[in-house]
Amino acid sequence: MTYYLLLDGDTEKDVIYETNVLGEESFGVFYPSMGLGLLNKIIQDVEDDALLEDIRILDDHKTKHSITEFLDKLDKWRIKKA
Q1: Which class for 61: exposed (0-12), middle (13-18), buried (19 or more C-beta within 10 A)?
Q2: Predicted local distance difference test score (pLDDT) of residue 48
Q3: Beta bridge partners of 25
Q4: What does the H/E/C string look like for the chain?
Q5: pLDDT for 15-73, tens place per residue?
Q6: Number of domains making up the chain
Q7: Disulfide-capable partner of 3 in 7, 19, 22, 76 (CB 3.0 to 4.6 Å)?
């Protein structure tokens, strides 16, 4: 399953861009993409937690996930490093 990062102003059409792709999970292994690095940077650098509420995470079934839900899933997967 592929996960996508949508920021304020992004639409579902923006998932085609590499910067919006968090990565793909398959059989308990997560293959990160550019979007995961961006999400990590946003989480670390944000000064106003309200900005985090504008972030949406979708999977390829268009199911919405909160940042916490996604990070909980990520914690259970083995992350494949390039």
Answers
A1: exposed
A2: 73
A3: 30
A4: CEEEEECCCCCHHHHHCHHHEEEEEECCEEEECHHHHHHHHHHHHCCCHHHHHHCEEEECCCCEECHHHHHHHHHHCEECCC
A5: 999 999 999 999 999 999 999 999 999 999 887 777 788 899 999 999 999 999 999 99
A6: 1
A7: 22
Range of the domain at 20: 2-79
| pLDDT at residue 81, as a whole number | 83
pTM: 0.91
Across the beta sheet with 56-59, what order do the strands follow?
64-65, 56-59, 2-6, 21-26, 29-32, 78-79
CB 25 within 8 A of CB 79: no
In 3D space, the residue among 19, 1, 18 whose CA is nearest the CA of residue 65 turns out to be 1
Residue 36 to residue 39: CA distance in whole angstroms: 5
